[in-house]
Amino acid sequence: MKTKIKKGLLDLLTILFVVLFPHYVPLPFYSYAIICWVTVWWVLHRQNKSLRDLGLIKNGVTVKVLLAGTVSALIWVAFMRWAYLPVVRYFFIVPEYTEYNFIQDHIFTFVLITVAAWIIGGFYEEIIFRGYIQTTIENWLGVRNSFWFSGLITSVIFGLYHWQQGFLGVMAAALGGLFWTCLLKRFGRNLWYPIFSHAIFDTITLTLIYLGLFNA
Fold it and tell me: Could you give the number of structural domains in the chain?
């Protein structure tokens, strides 16, 4: 019993750390991810687990994963541009999104940020959120449909993780979290599917920003 409590407390503290540390200890150019990544790896190691337990299947990158990742990313871009944004613009005054405008007319910066998006947005965030956090919460719940309950909770946390983008950014990120949770379920909890979908979505978004078409 004590071991279970200690494990639960360690998981809770780890979740709080990876969610809050990047915001309250701002390190240059996404270097916070190294510290958070090592922390999660250490916790998994202590619990005799590996990334496979989070859904990172060995040799899981296939042509099917690439195709599904690309198609799902295009679907999500279309949804955000032609469904989500028109609805929120109807009810709210939506300021132009300018967080990444610094990449415009700077091809090297664009490439650098895109690579970072694959490493951080795709690989790191999906392992941390759809992998570690969602799996941990699901194990805590241990009830019927705990996958969906944990997915909903994780998506809310994922949205709040993007609080620096404002309320509408939080909403968009939370919806994205639900979308990638559905993708994870659809493809047998193979985490490579949401990883590639997330990374390709970010790549398309950054490309639109670079070309000055994001707010068009």
Answer: 1
Kindly state whether residue 182 falls inside one of the protein's structural domains. Answer: yes
In a domain, 15, yes or no: no
* Nearest residue to 30 via CA among 148, 153, 112, 126: 112
pTM exceeds 0.90 = yes
- Tell whether 47 is covered by a domain: no
Residue-wise pLDDT tens for the chain (216 aa)?
Answer: 677 888 999 999 999 999 999 999 988 889 999 999 999 999 999 999 999 999 999 889 999 999 999 999 999 999 999 999 999 999 988 888 888 999 999 999 999 999 999 999 999 999 999 999 999 999 999 888 999 999 999 999 999 999 988 888 999 999 999 999 999 999 999 999 999 999 999 999 999 999 999 986
Domain range enclosing 171: 54-210
Query: CB under 8 Å, gap of 24 or more: what pairs does 25-28 form?
Result: none
Which residues contact residue 202 at a Cβ distance below 8 angstroms, ignoring those fewer than 6 apart?
114, 117, 118, 121, 122
